[in-house]
C-alpha cells in the first residue's frame, strides 16, 4: 500500500503543477471541472468549490515540500481571500478552511489565521436560533420551493467553526456548530441512517417543512455524496467535541454505507445507492474519496475490530481510485487527478467528469492512510 500511496501522490503532484501552470495568466480563476470536449472549466472565488485546489496544493506540499508547490499553494490560496466576508451562502467553510485552514496548519502564517476568523464570523450570520441550523441557500428562482433549506453538505462547514472556537476562545462558534449538528442529526436521517439531501424548515415555528433529495435519484433515495458528507461530518464533529452521540452517528452511517447491497465490490459507490440502472449506473469518485477519507479517520476512534473493518474498506477504495480506471495520466483529464465523478445528475450537470473536490478528498485520504501506515 505504501508504494501505491507514494506513486499516486507523485502523479497527483505532476498533475497539480501542470494545472497551476495552466492558470498562471488567469489570476482570478480556479479549476472546477472539464466540459464535454475535455476543456478546462474554471470558476471564480465565489463558487463553492474554489478552495479545493489550493487545499490540494497544500497537502502535496506537506507531503513533499518544494518551493514551486509552496508558491503555487500561496498563489491559489490568495485567490479565494475575498470569500472571508461572504455571508450569502454556507460554503465559506469549504472555500476558506480547505485553503487557508490547511495553509495555516502547515505554515503558521498569522495572516491566514485572521482570514479564518473573519470567515467564521461571516458563516455564523446564517444561523437561525429558532431553527437551530445554518441556512444553506438563499432565495432564488430554483430554490423557491423551500422556506429555509439546509443541506447535508453543510455539516462539512462546521469544522471551520469548531477550529475557530478553540483558536479564538469564542464559544459562539462551537455553539452554532453543535446546535446545527444536533438539529441535522434529528431531522436529516431516516431510520436506517441514510440521509435526505435537503431539509426545509418553517421560518416561524422552526418545524420541518419538507424533506427532499434534490441531487439524488428521488426524495427517498440515498444520494451517494450526501451519505459521504454525513459520514465525514459526524466523524469530524466527534474529533472536535468528543461527543459520543456524534461517534455513534458516524458509525451508523458508515455501517449503512459499507453494508449496502448496492455498494460495488471495489467500494466506489454508484452516484445514488438507489439509481434505477444499477449495475450500469455511473460511479461517483467524489463520493468514494470523501467516504474513504472519513473511514480512515473513523477507524481510529473505534474498537480494534471495527476500526479494521473500516480501514479495510478504505484501503479497497484507495486501491481502486489509484488504479488506471480512476487515476489520470499526467497531462490528461484537464490536469485533474481523478476521473469519473458525478456532480448533479438530475440536472445533467458535471456528469462523469473530474471534480476538484474529488481530488481534494482523495489526496487527503492518501495522506491520512500514509500516517496510519507510519504508525503501524
Explain what you see:
This protein has 376 residues and is mainly alpha-helical. It has a single domain, classed as Glycosyltransferase (Alpha/alpha barrel). Helix content is 50%, strand content 9%. The chain is built from twelve helices and nine strands. The chain has helices at 2-22, 52-63, 67-78, 92-107, 110-123, 158-167, 171-187, 224-241, 244-258, 285-299, 304-321, 356-375, and strands at 30-34, 40-43, 127-128, 133-134, 149-151, 198-201, 208-212, 341-344, 349-353. A three-stranded antiparallel beta sheet has the order 5-6-7, with no helix packed on it. Strand 1 and strand 2 (40-43) form a beta hairpin. The two termini are 13 Å apart. The mean pLDDT is 97.
Please outline the major beta sheet. 3 strands, antiparallel
* Number of E-state strands: 9
Structural class: mainly alpha
Query: What is the CA-atom radius of gyration, in angstroms?
Result: 19 Å
Which residues sit in consecutive blocks of at least 5 with pLDDT less than 50?
A: none
**Shape estimate:** globular
Amino acid at each position: 500500500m505504501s508504494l501505491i500511496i507514494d506513486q499516486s501522490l507523485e502523479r497527483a503532484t505532476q498533475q497539480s503543477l501542470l494545472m497551476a501552470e495552466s492558470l498562471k495568466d488567469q489570476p482570478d480563476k480556479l479549476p472546477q471541472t472539464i466540459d464535454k470536449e475535455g476543456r478546462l472549466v474554471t470558476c471564480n472565488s465565489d463558487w463553492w468549490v474554489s478552495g479545493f485546489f489550493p487545499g490540494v496544493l497544500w497537502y502535496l506540499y506537506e507531503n513533499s515540500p518544494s518551493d514551486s508547490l509552496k508558491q503555487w499553494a500561496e498563489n491559489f490560496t490568495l485567490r479565494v481571500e475575498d470569500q472571508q466576508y461572504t455571508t450569502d451562502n454556507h460554503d465559506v467553510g469549504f472555500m476558506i478552511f480547505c485553503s487557508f485552514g490547511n495553509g495555516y496548519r502547515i505554515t503558521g502564517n498569522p495572516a491566514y489565521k485572521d482570514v479564518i476568523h473573519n470567515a467564521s464570523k461571516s458563516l455564523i450570520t446564517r444561523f437561525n436560533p429558532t431553527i437551530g441550523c445554518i441556512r444553506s441557500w438563499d432565495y432564488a428562482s430554483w430554490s423557491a420551493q423551500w422556506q429555509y433549506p439546509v443541506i447535508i453538505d453543510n455539516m462539512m462547514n462546521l469544522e471551520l467553526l469548531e477550529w475557530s472556537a478553540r483558536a479564538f476562545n469564542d464559544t459562539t462558534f462551537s455553539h452554532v456548530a453543535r446546535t446545527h449538528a444536533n438539529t441535522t442529526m434529528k431531522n436529516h436521517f431516516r431510520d436506517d441512517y441514510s440521509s435526505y439531501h435537503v431539509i426545509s424548515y418553517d421560518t416561524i415555528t422552526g418545524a420541518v417543512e419538507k424533506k427532499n433529495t434534490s441531487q439524488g435519484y428521488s426524495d427517498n433515495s440515498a444520494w451517494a455524496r450526501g451519505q459521504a458528507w454525513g459520514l465525514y461530518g459526524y466523524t469530524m464533529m466527534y474529533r472536535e467535541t468528543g461527543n459520543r452521540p456524534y461517534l455513534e452517528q458516524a458509525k451508523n452511517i458508515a455501517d449503512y454505507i459499507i453494508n449496502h447491497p448496492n455498494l460495488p465490490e471495489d467500494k466506489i459507490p454508484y452516484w445514488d445507492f438507489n439509481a434505477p440502472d444499477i449495475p450500469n449506473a455511473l460511479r461517483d469518485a467524489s463520493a468514494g474519496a470523501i467516504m474513504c477519507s472519513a473511514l480512515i479517520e473513523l477507524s481510529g476512534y473505534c474498537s480494534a475490530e471495527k476500526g479494521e473493518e473500516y480501514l479495510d474498506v478504505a484501503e479497497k477504495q484507495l486501491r481502486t481510485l489509484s488504479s488506471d480506471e480512476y487515476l489520470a495520466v499526467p497531462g490528461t483529464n484537464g490536469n485533474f487527478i481523478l476521473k469519473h465523478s458525478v456532480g448533479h445528475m438530475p440536472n445533467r450537470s458535471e456528469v462523469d467528469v473530474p471534480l476538484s473536490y474529488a481530488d481534494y478528498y482523495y489526496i487527503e485520504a492518501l495522506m491520512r492512510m500514509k500516517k496510519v501506515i507510519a504508525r503501524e
